[in-house]
Amino acid sequence: MMFSIGFVFTATFFVFPGEVVAVKYAGTVGLNGLSKAGWWPVILLTAFQIGDTTGRSLPAVFTCLTRQLVPWASFARLVFIPLWIVAARGIAVVSSDPWTLVLMLIFALTNGYVSTLSFAYAPRLVEPADREKVGFLMGLVLQVGIACGSALSLALS
């Protein structure tokens, strides 16, 4: 689970917010003022916050990933890295505004959902006396994941 936590946040901060705010409004929705006023990045960041919060709340309602699948789900989130990179570069396949919003919502939902499940499952894997130490280590791994993702993001730009 420690791997999952670090990997989720490394993958997230590799492209968020740097590549995400570089995605240009394509005008496929017909609201051309979004680009001129600078609202498109704000809308994408807001969509991330909504999706991430929803993803963090979902495990309280249902859990579709078992403890064994959470590391695979965190690894599967790598697919978002090239998608955001090509979206930021304006490649035709992903230059549709509705597609960009859907991509953001799925990216954010999986970020919140997989990270919350990782934090929920990790303490259950150790003896009750060691859960406090695991909690500390999970926080440390989260911070290392954020730092690694941010460093990779700087290398990308």
Structure description:
- The chain is an all-alpha fold.
- The protein contains eight helices and no strands.
- Helix 1 (2-15) packs antiparallel against helix 7 and helix 1 (2-15) runs parallel beside helix 8 (131-156).
- The mean pLDDT is 87.
Short description:
The chain is built from eight helices and no strands. The chain has helices at residues 2-15, 18-21, 33-37, 39-61, 70-76, 80-88, 97-121, 131-156. The chain starts with a helix and ends with a helix.
Detail the topology: elements first, then pairings.
Blueprint: H1 2-15, H2 18-21, H3 33-37, H4 39-61, H5 70-76, H6 80-88, H7 97-121, H8 131-156
Helix pairs in contact: 1-5, 1-6, 1-7, 1-8, 4-7, 5-7
Relevant terms:
157 residues, mainly alpha, 8 helices
How far the N terminus sits from the C terminus, by CA atoms, comes to 30 Å
The helix/strand class is: mainly alpha
> What's the number of structural domains?
1
Evaluate the radius of gyration.
17 Å
Mean residue pLDDT: 87
**Weakly predicted, low-confidence segments:** none
Beta-strand segment tally: 0
Largest sheet: none
**Helix content class:** over 70%
Secondary-structure element string: HHHHHHHH
Output the number of helix runs.
8
Strand composition percent: under 5%
Apparent shape: elongated
